[in-house]
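Q: Here's a chain of 207 amino acids. Please give me its 3D structure as tokens.
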Amino acid sequence: MPSTSQWAAFLLASLIFIQVPGPSLLFTIGRALTVGRAEALASVVGNGLGLLVQIVLVAVGLGSLVAASSTAYTVVKVAGAAYVLWLGIQAIRHRADARRSLDAAVPIRRGNPVRIGFTVGVTNPKTIVFFVAFLPQFTDRSGVVPVQVLLLGAAFTALAIASDSLWALAAGRARDWFARRPERLDRLSATGGSMMVGLGVLLLVRD
């Protein structure tokens, strides 16, 4: 098992990595602005489940293949970027939904937020590369490395869920403030959608 110093170094590196604006964080903020805190938090849970799938794949060696193969990496990157782009465009197209939902008996929903978050999380190439590059460095080679990778990855996922949830709550509070004048929600939803479109483009052009 990893030593105490290895755990400390890993947790510090994870916290730094999580706070750097990337697909998961920007996606969470965008969702909170466009559909509110509740669905953003559900998306955070889905994103965490997607990360767990990546961790399992890394533990069995598939993550190394994706990191080493430019073709596999590109496929994952393009798929994730296209999905985020689609979500952003939908948010812009349906920017009046948030305002209308204030007067509706049942809030308007566009897709299952857990499933949406899962898709973004599982197709995030940034975290695959991070897991492949860093997780092995904090393992004890004399132990069962795949099991240690799973434990480290689970700890990373817990930190990511906690951090993204705080961001979702903060962004959701800003959304509620704007909701005092419902017409502002149209611009707010368009802003969140534009943020996700920009993120999708960034994913496509980044190496």
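Q: Can you summarize the key feature?
A: Confidence is low (pLDDT under 50) at residues 105-109.
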